[in-house]
Description:
mainly alpha, 11 helices, 71% helix, flat, disordered C terminus
Amino acid sequence: MQIATLAQMGVTAVLAATLPLSMVWMSADANKYRKLVWVGVFLTFDLIVFGAFTRLSDSGLGCPDWPGCYGLANPILALDAISSAQALRPSGPVTLLKAWIEMTHRYLAMGIAVLIVTIMAQAWRRWGQSRRPEFSPWLPTALFFFVCLQGAFGAWTVTMKLQPVIVTIHLLLGMCLLASLAWLGGRQDNAVTPLTGAGCTAPAMRRMRLLAALAALLLLIQIALGGWVSTNYAALACGDFPLCDGKLVPAMDFGQGFTVWRALGETASGQYLPFSALTAIHWMHRSFALVLFAGIGYTAYCARAHPSLRLTGGRIALALLLQAGTGIATISLNYPLPIAVLHNAGAALLVVLLTMLNYRAKFHFEFARATSGTSRLSSPARHQP
């Protein structure tokens, strides 16, 4: 790729970040760093949802090279190459619309990378000025390297022709990036409005920390299974609900379905992937959803028992119900694109909410433990002579 093309794409990345950065700069919010972090959370959420739309609309190879489109900065400049590819295969992966969808996803990703660089730079500047803990630069710096890794998997997604394991890891890294930004946002919120932890005991918060961490782990596993369904195009392998092809346990090939390193639609030996393998992939995601619903539902129920976590627990419960509804509707309505995208958005929303629950439970536990230790030190000793 020519230097001029890379320069054009760099300018596009800066322009993509200009609007959100301008909104933060002109905001009346006195804490613009906090505002910047939460804008990053919002745009990363949008990027994940648009990435789902890109994948589900079969636009992942709308431009079959990376980072440009046929070596050029945008689909307008690559119109001749796109038109030629579309003429050869009118229903193939390359069309002008799919090229624009794919490149818009890349432009948004580049804009978010610029935002994260800005967050990192601001963190180091403010840390140098104040040494205040909310400006600790280590997490923002880790986010910078994280987004570089995510970009590498984005490139491999295209160059390795949508290999399922690469696409699934790309999705998981995107969710982890969203969670990390949300954790950073929680830290900024706590600096503005400190969490008191009133009424929380250390044993209760220790239990909530364990439950919240387990719920996050269950969600990570289910997102990986969902990504595996999507990247293997197995969403319609079971066309009915709650049964699968009229059976509770249909014929399935777990060995072929869950072979990790293989090309899209193929077995490890290069043969066509059998339908029973797609059924196994879909059935596993659907079955684990029951475990997820029970685990996160119980966590949300327990969180609502604590006044300081009640609102977060209620939001998690609502998001979980909506996620179950969109999952069932996706199957029952024969995989409509808007509902399938909404199902992916629900997963990202649960990532944000569970991250906030983990952050709050951790803070309340540490606060309760410190308060308990202080109380013991200040109380008169028992059994004094």
